[in-house]
Fold this sequence. Notes:
The chain is of the alpha/beta class. Helices cover 29% and strands 26% of the residues. It has 18 helices and 30 strands.
Amino acid sequence: MTFAHxxxxxxxxxxxxxxxxxxxxAFEATPYAxxxxxxxxxxxxxxxxxxxxxxxxxxFLKSADPDETPLTIPHAACIARITQAANFFHxxxxxxxxxxSVLMPLLPQTFFALFGAQAAGIANPVNPLLSATQIGEILxxxxxxxxxxxxxxxxxxxYAKVQQIRExxxxxxxxxxxxxxxxxxxxxxxxxxxxxxxxxxxxLTSGRxxxxxxxxxxxHTGGTTGTPKLVRHTHANQVYQAWAMALxxxxxxxxxxxxxxxxHVGGALTQALTTLSVGGALVVVxxxxxxxxxxxxxxxxxxERYRPRLIAAxxxxxxxxxxxxxxxxxxxxxxxxxxxxxxxxxxxxxxCVDLLKVPAIEVYGMTETSSVHTMSYRERPVRLGSAGHAMxxxxxxxxxxxxxxxxxxxCAVNEIGVIAMAGPGVFSGYLSEAHNRGAFVEPGWVNSGxxxxxxxxxxxxxxxxAKDLIIRGGHNIDPMAIEEVFFQxxxxxxxxxxxxxxxxxxxxxxxxxxxxxxAAVGQAELLAFVRERTPERAAVxxxxxxxxxxxxxxxxxxxxxxxxxxxxRRAVDRLLADLAGDGATIQVVTGTHAEHGDLITVHIDGxxxxxxxxxxxxxxxRLDPLVMKHRIAWG
Length: 635
């Protein structure tokens, strides 16, 4: 690959090939510490900006329209604004250990604030779609000193949420407003654009020398009740992500269609930091990112207009995109497609290969590994459904653990166990020490909470999830938060919320409810009760199932694996309900398989030999998009 890696001091004019374990071992013979040029995200961004200072760094579209003229910000101006933001935060008293929280949609100022905060102190980007209560808990847990937020806007409720929680944040010293001064006359409220314009753009006025081990940012993950779980990243963690992604995927000095939120590591690090650090340009499809309906609808025309070498998103965006006809759009610039956040259903990956004639690369990681940790190597055979191998200088194991998360040993080849990961991107722990119990199977090896296996060639296959999070379209939903709402209803004795497989979202939350003896409540009434009290709309269950008894373990805990299988069976029953008839019977059975983990088996009987192929195709077409594996049994 003819691309000199700007963050790697040991790479010359071209990137190395990593086709075999031997080539990877030869590459890793040079210690990683001798390779990496940048000691901080600010230094990485400075290196990227120096490659072609007048080349575009950011291109902003209003509504994902390929024909509109984007607002374009060159690299020189981008790093200047980041520097000015850092200097302004410093003037507000932000030092190395102080937190700047960012509550914003995808606007130019969001990028300046995020990376400027890391140059001055610690950045804490927060999902603005959360409820005011949830946002307040995250800001308080992070110890927010300065908050950057969108100003009053009829189309947004962000500023209204800030007004609700501001007085509940005793450590908050300043609110910095983008697009409007907010509360005129309040000395603690500042106009972002006006304030940074008064700052020097050519140096950090703090004189700070950022060390690789300094904390760069907090990213919230996991639950939505109790003490928020904040992942603590060092500058070294985040720079590794940018270095590795630029090595493994065709970023370079090219355009990348960008629609992931900056409060998520995939957007902030895997795509934004990487692209800017290697002199590329982010084409921000809209302030709402891929949630803008026109973004997917226009995706191939956007590819034709901006000529990216890589298309990367969450699997739901990829799945929707492959349903959009090319209609003659020239997509020949693309060299590969990549997705992560949840597994890519094999049929979606194959549809991507068929449509675009490029490899479909599955990436796997978590917030705790600074995003991507394993992926399919483009120079090796891509096995659809596999998450490939650990990136250079990183390691992956599949291990056995006891009920307390303690390591019992490594699993054999193709034996399912818990995935553990180590490497330069792996965090050192959560901000709250209470969350670190069970976070690591042994020092340096984070417990992913996911189940998987390593095959005889070292490919990683994700087979399930040991933890209970529901991943809806790449977004984590904590079932405990929803269950607590159900328990507020006097008729509910026990409840369990699990993920049900869905062709588009990957998983949707559903609830199993056991009522108190003698109690009665209707499904619609109970769902309305929960909807009114659940702060996150995406977390409201799409189905509610009343059952006589919630299954329990020997120690009295809810046994969710059984309920996940039950939910999958019910979902598939609905998907296939109209195919039975004319003598054909369809029975859906769910269970676990030694190699594939959770498995759907569709038993079909009463079909003539001639009709088998047609019915099999219909069943496959409906079940192929599901992440959960399936098979058909005839007779």
